[in-house]
């Protein structure tokens, strides 16, 4: 009932502290607030090699109400860095989707930096499972 | 059972089962998880079905005497037999087999006649096309033909997908009704791959039915068989589809779901605007709806053992009231629909001789359903250990598979009811003790994670040749202890390699004989089956 | 490595001020630099490290990629279009290769 192979051999795991440090580097040392940003991931990955990840930030995306960028991290990968999205007024909305690699069950983290310097974070656990069995 | 069978059957009449009080103006009829069972059968409900976290002790995580007490059901009564494992063998002898799609047909025709054909929606929750020898031989065609005769209005799916994407497309296109799945997406471009929902006009009422296929199909089953489809719970899509249906004037919104009970209970608490969730996948049969923030969650059992009837009173654009009953299909009480009997006979005819071939005999109850090892899987595990010369054997925690009562012959049909599938290879491979533990922990978390959205809804993998202790409430990765190799009594060594045999691997190109050949080979040497209660799994709940 | 081939989905037309959805895919191994070959030697990193989308020369959306982005990188994002014009999509490879494609849109 199981995929007995399939986990990629990976070097020693990075710690969640590395991810925290990357968040702080991105925000310039500011602790992110919750709210405004919504991270959407599957609860269980269908395939750890390609996990869809979407973010959406509440913003008019005009005038001063602009999202500058969104940092995506995976706190259980050997290197937590995943991607950084950059938005402009021409983005129309601060929403984007990509697909990422997750080595094991872990948290995906998204941090939004607004044009006014305020920062917001959301976090979701994604389970990477061996698979098999069922009802 | 104190009653003689004839007396019991006399006491229980078709009229008792089918007569209905007139109520409301729209009726939903739900059947789910038939698993290709066209003929009457025995199916023992679980004696253990543990809930964790917030759902501990809540239906459907109530079994046996507690279940009878909760729903005020007389021990030994027909409902006690249909809904629990209590006194199962004796009551099976009293009340006989359950189900049979020709009996189901009688019930549905009666509901349509009583309620008015135009006021009834028949909805099939999926896991319909897989689970029997004939379904396997015809790649689902037999079930499509028979179900079409029942004239459903919509279905969704799970095991259907294990026939592979091409076959699924071919069958879905042939259906005279909709196959709905709002949570199935094209994996490349992230676009809906199936019709998500459909509006039905029933007795002047607009009923929207949203389909939700099993979210974890590509994880619980081989993803390589349908590589271009992605699933998932996709709660935000359910919200979007409910809003769309309401904005198009739906008076009633129904989620035809294969999420599993706990997932649907959570969904109902988080998504506004769903009137009824017809749930499936976890095979629970509940005589009353569970009501979550005004949403009725209906669980209609499996194997065509039950049909659910939900009568709704819909006025001024909303549901004002409901009347519900779970109709147990007592096959000796409900008159078969002759047309349907003929159709079933026709689709089975080419295989009838093989279906009836006797390959063994059992003196003990053989059942699968329950959170941990059941006797039917213990037979499979024993066959795998012996036929594949393994130290340890694994059998998946499927919830389908029918029961056999003591004294029954084991036929080819019975065996295949427990293992008919498109990836039946019985592998044999070397695994370290550590890997075994990782696998068992992983499966345990898929079953006992306290967040239902992280559950896959099967039962625990069944293990032969090894004992273990499980603490279902412990954290991910630390539920399993005391792993012991039964043949030596020694603790499993994480560093040692063990020969492990199992079946239903989700890996592509898994090698080995089909599981049914393994079990048949074993039965040829041990035709008389007597399985004792499994004592090597210790459960801390 | 096989030549990377970009594919994009952009609506052919939109109304002025509309926010449209754009989807892009490019075939690429996204070699992470963490794998080893059969001899146990590390396989060097080679990924797409930058993706940009411009409309009539103005930046719309861009992304810096790390090796944790999946093979065949996929992006879905939005763009607000006020006039007819050309979307230009650019992917930059670690090896210096640049892959580009363009799409026209008519604003009515
Ligand atoms: Mn099922
Ligand atoms: Mn299912």
Automatic annotation (TrEMBL), chain B:
> May I have one GO cellular component term?
outer membrane-bounded periplasmic space
Q: What's a Gene Ontology MF term here?
A: hydrolase activity
Note the Gene3D superfamilies from the entry: 3.60.21.10, 5'-Nucleotidase, C-terminal domain (3.90.780.10), 6.10.140.570
Q: Give the record's keywords alphabetically.
A: Hydrolase, Nucleotide-binding, Signal
Q: What NCBIfam families does the record tag this protein with?
A: thiosulf_SoxB
Return one Gene Ontology term, BP aspect. nucleotide catabolic process
The UniProt record lists the 5'-Nucleotidase C-terminal domain at: 359-504
Q: Per the database record, which ranges form the Calcineurin-like phosphoesterase domain?
A: 27-284
UniProt family annotation? Belongs to the 5'-nucleotidase family.
Q: Output this protein's name.
A: Thiosulfohydrolase SoxB
- Pfam families annotated for this entry? 5_nucleotid_C, Metallophos
Lineage of the source organism?
A: Bacteria, Pseudomonadati, Pseudomonadota, Alphaproteobacteria, Hyphomicrobiales
Q: Which gene encodes it?
A: soxB
InterPro entries named among the record's database cross-references = 5'-Nucleotdase_C, 5'-Nucleotdase_C_sf, 5_nucleotidase/apyrase, Calcineurin-like_PHP, Metallo-depent_PP-like, SoxB_N, TAT_signal, Thiosulf_SoxB
Which PANTHER family does this UniProt record tie to the protein?
A: 5'-NUCLEOTIDASE-RELATED, SULFUR OXIDATION PROTEIN SOXB
UniProtKB/TrEMBL annotation, chain C:
Q: Which Pfam family, giving just one, matches this sequence? A: SoxZ
Which residue range or ranges hold the Sulphur oxidation protein SoxZ domain? 9-102
List the SUPFAM superfamilies.
E set domains
Name of this protein: Thiosulfate oxidation carrier complex protein SoxZ
Q: Which species?
A: Zhengella mangrovi
């Amino acid at each position: 009932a199981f995929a007995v192979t399939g986990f990629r051999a990976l070097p020693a795991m990075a710690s969640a502290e590395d991810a925290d440090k990357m968040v702080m580097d991105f925000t310039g040392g500011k602790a992110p607030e919750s709210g405004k940003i919504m991270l959407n991931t599957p609860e269980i990955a269908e395939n750890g090699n390609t996990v869809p990840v979407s973010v959406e930030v509440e913003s008019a995306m005009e005038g001063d109400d602009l999202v500058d960028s969104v940092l995506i991290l995976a706190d259980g990968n050997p290197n937590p860095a995943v991607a950084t999205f950059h938005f402009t007024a021409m983005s129309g909305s601060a929403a984007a989707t990509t697909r990422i690699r997750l080595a094991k069950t872990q948290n995906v983290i998204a941090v939004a930096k607004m044009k006014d310097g305020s920062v917001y974070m959301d976090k979701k656990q994604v389970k990477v499972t061996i698979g098999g069995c069922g009802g | 059972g104190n009653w003689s069978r004839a007396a019991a059957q006399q006491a229980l009449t078709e009229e008792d089962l089918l007569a209905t009080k007139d109520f409301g103006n729209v009726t939903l009829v739900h059947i789910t998880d038939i698993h290709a069972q066209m003929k009457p059968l025995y199916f023992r409900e679980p004696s253990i079905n543990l809930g964790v976290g917030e759902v501990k002790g809540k239906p459907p995580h109530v079994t046996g005497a507690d279940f009878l007490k909760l729903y005020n059901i007389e021990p030994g009564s027909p409902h006690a037999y249909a809904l629990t494992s209590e006194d199962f063998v004796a009551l099976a002898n009293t009340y006989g087999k359950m189900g049979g799609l020709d009996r189901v047909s009688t019930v549905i025709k009666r509901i349509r006649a009583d309620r008015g054909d135009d006021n009834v929606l028949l909805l099939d929750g999926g896991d319909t096309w897989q689970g029997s020898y004939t379904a396997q031989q015809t790649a689902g065609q037999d079930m499509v033909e028979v179900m079409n005769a029942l004239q459903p209005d919509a279905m969704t799916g799970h095991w259907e997908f294990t026939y592979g994407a091409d076959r699924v497309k071919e069958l879905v296109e042939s259906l005279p009704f909709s196959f709905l799945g709002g949570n199935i997406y094209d994996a490349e471009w992230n676009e809906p791959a199936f019709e998500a929902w459909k509006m039905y006009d029933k007795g002047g009422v607009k009923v929207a039915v949203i389909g939700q296929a099993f979210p974890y199909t590509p994880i619980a089953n081989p993803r390589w068989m349908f590589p271009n489809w992605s699933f998932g719970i996709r709660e935000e899509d359910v919200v979007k589809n409910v809003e769309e249906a309401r904005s198009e004037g739906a008076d009633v919104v129904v989620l035809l779901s294969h999420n599993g009970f706990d997932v649907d209970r959570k969904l109902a608490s988080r998504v506004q605007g769903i009137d009824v969730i017809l749930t499936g996948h976890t095979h629970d049969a509940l005589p009353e709806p569970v009501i979550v923030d005004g949403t009725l969650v209906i669980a209609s059992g499996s194997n065509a053992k039950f049909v659910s009837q939900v009568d709704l009173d819909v006025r001024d654009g909303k549901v004002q009231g409901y009347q519900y009953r779970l109709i147990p299909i007592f096959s000796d009480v409900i008159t078969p629909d002759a047309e349907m009997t003929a159709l079933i006979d026709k689709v089975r005819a080419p295989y009838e001789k093989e279906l009836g071939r006797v390959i063994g005999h059992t003196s003990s109850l053989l059942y699968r359903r329950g959170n941990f090892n059941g006797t039917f899987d213990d037979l499979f595990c024993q066959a795998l250990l012996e036929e594949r010369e393994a130290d340890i054997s694994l059998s998946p925690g499927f919830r389908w598979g029918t029961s056999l009562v003591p004294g029954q012959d084991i036929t080819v049909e019975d065996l295949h009811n427990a293992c008919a599938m498109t990836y039946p290879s019985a592998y044999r491979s070397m695994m370290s003790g550590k890997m075994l533990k990782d696998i068992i922990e992983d499966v345990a978390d898929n079953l006992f994670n306290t967040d239902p959205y992280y559950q896959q809804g099967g039962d625990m993998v069944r293990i032969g040749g090894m004992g273990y202790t499980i603490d279902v409430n412990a954290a991910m990765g630390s539920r399993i202890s005391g792993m012991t190799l039964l043949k030596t009594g020694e603790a499993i060594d994480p560093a040692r390699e063990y020969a492990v045999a199992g079946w239903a691997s989700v890996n592509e190109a898994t090698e080995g004989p089909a599981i049914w050949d393994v079990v048949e080979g074993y039965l040829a040497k041990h035709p008389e089956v007597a399985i004792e209660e499994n004592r090597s799994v210790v459960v801390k709940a | 490595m096989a030549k990377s081939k970009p594919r994009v989905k952009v609506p052919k037309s939109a109304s002025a001020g509309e926010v449209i959805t754009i989807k892009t895919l490019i075939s690429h191994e996204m070699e992470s630099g963490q794998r080893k070959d059969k001899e146990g030697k590390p396989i060097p990193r080679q990924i797409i490290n930058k993706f940009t989308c411009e409309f009539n020369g103005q930046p719309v959306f861009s992304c810096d990629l790390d090796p944790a982005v999946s093979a065949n990188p996929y992006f879905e994002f939005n763009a607000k279009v006020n006039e007819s014009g050309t979307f230009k999509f650019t992917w930059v490879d670690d090896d210096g290769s640049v892959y580009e494609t363009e799409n026209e849109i008519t604003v009515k």
